[in-house]
Amino acid sequence: MPRFEPFTGLRYRADIDGDAVAAPPYDVIDELQRKALAARSPYNSVHLELPVDEPGADRYQVAARLLAEWLDAGILVADDAPSFCLYRMGFTDELGRARQTSGVIGALELAEPGQGDVLPHEHTTPKAKSDRMALLEATGVNLSPVWGLSLAAGLTGLVEPTGPPLTRCTDETGTHHRLWRVSAPGTVEAISALVGSAPVVIADGHHRYETALAFRRQRIADGAAPGPHDLIMALVVELTESEVSVRAIHRLLDGLDPSFDLVSAWSSLFEADPVEPDDLQELLATLAGKKSA
Questions:
Q1: Nearest to residue 152, comparing CAs of 216, 243, 229, 62?
Q2: Which residue(s) pair with 233 in the sheet?
Q3: Helix/strand/coil for 107
Q4: Are 88 and 102 in contact (CB under 8 A)?
Q5: Pairing relation of β-strands 231-238 and 146-150?
Q6: Which helix (H) or strand (E) holds 201?
Q7: Half-sphere exposure of residue 160, counting CA atoms within 13 Å on the CB side?
Q8: Which listed residue, 62, 74, 223, 259, has the most CB atoms within 10 A of its CB?
Q9: SS3 state at 182
């Protein structure tokens, strides 16, 4: 079963505004948004996640230099001991319902495909992996967590936070993000044991996961002893309807003969519900009734 451990994290100094330094996952940021995030603060995390070339230094060297400078200046501070982080995301869904997702951030073991109980479900592209590999080699740190879904029942109740969060921010979509540090030995042991009792499915971050695997293989080939390269920073959330919001997947078909009756042709495979083309609320209500929204 998967190993899940506390780790010594790097955090922004407590007085730094979380809204100014937070950024979305690197693979959803376009060039315009990157510029806006970079202008928000010289310490916005996008400077590390999506660095740009500078005269005399490529983007990966830039990221490594910035990371070292931020640590030296106290912008980023290392934890005094290994710990987990409880994470809670609060948002409003498309039907106006208040939702939240809670999980725990820790160090998850890396398992080769077909081995162990960390299970990917996507194929990835070489270019994206080579970019993340160069960034990992230059900085030596996981700059953002992958997202895993645990099949262990009860994790949600175990990660119920107490007290004020260590840090918080609100992103451009109005989604609230909060973090609590957890270092109490009993809670740490309970989280490790529960996550380690069932498989973890990688829901997001396959490029980073496969990059970490490749980095681990490289370290082993170089003769490295077991160490941090055997693990990856991961947010683990219980796979339950209350914590995971899975939205409908939309597909468009074109080039069909006007006389072709698609609904009839696929009737043995799908259920079809008629909805007025311009009535978004009717569509959302129909999807919600089918537990697809």
A1: 243
A2: 107
A3: strand
A4: yes
A5: parallel
A6: strand 200-204
A7: 3
A8: 62
A9: strand
Question: 188-213 pLDDT, tens per residue?
Answer: 999 999 999 999 999 989 889 999 99
**How many alpha carbons lie under 13 Å from residue 130 in its C-beta half-sphere?**
3
φ, ψ for residue 261, nearest 5 deg: -95, 95
Both tokens of 208, joined, read 């980073």
Categorise residue 179: left if φ over 0, alpha if ψ from -120 to 50, beta otherwise: beta
Q: How does pLDDT run across 245-286, given as a tens digit for each residue? A: 666 666 677 888 888 988 888 888 888 877 776 777 777 777
Residue 124: the pLDDT is 63
Whole-angstrom Cα distance, residue 24 to residue 22?
Answer: 7
Rounded Cα distance between 233 and 235, Å, is 7
Give Cβ neighbours of residue 268 (< 8 Å, ≥ 6 apart): none
Confidence of residue 95 (pLDDT cuts 50, 70, 90): confident
Per-state percent for the chain, helix, strand, coil, to nearest 5: 35, 20, 45
pTM of the full structure: 0.84
Residue 124 burial (10 A CB sphere; 0-12, 13-18, 19+) = middle
Q: Please compute Rg for the chain using Cα positions.
A: 21
Identify which of 153, 138, 171, 159 has the alpha carbon closest to the alpha carbon of residue 61: 138
Structure-token pair, residue 65 = 């230099």
Q: What percent of the chain has pLDDT over 70?
A: 93
85 vs 106: CA distance, rounded Å: 7
Mean pLDDT of the region 152-169: 91
Amino acid identity, position 193: A
Per DSSP, helices labelled H in the chain are 18-21, 31-40, 46-49, 59-73, 126-139, 155-158, 185-195, 206-221, 262-265, 280-289
Identify which of 42, 62, 37 has the alpha carbon closest to the alpha carbon of residue 51: 62
